[in-house]
Amino acid sequence: MTVGLITSEYPHPKVLRSAGIATSIKNLAITLVKKGLQVIVFVYHQKEDDIINDEGVTIHLISKKKYKLFTWYFYRKHLQNYINTIVLKENISILEAPDWTGITAFMKFKVPLVIRFHGSDAYFCKLDKRKQKFKNFILEKKALMQASAFIAPTAYAGIETQSIFGLEKHKIETIHYGLQLENFVNDNPSIYNRNSILYIGTIIRKKGVLELAEMFNKVVALNPKVVLILIGADAPDIKTGNNSTFELMKSVFTEEAKTKVNYLGKIPYVEVKAHIKKAHVCTFPSFAETLGMVTIESMALQKPVVNTSIGWAQELIDDQVNGYLVHPTEIDLYSKRILHLLDDENQCLKIGEAARKKVETKFNIDTLVDKNISYYKRIIKEANAL
Question: What pLDDT, on the 0 to 100 scale, is given for residue 20?
Answer without folding.
Answer: 73
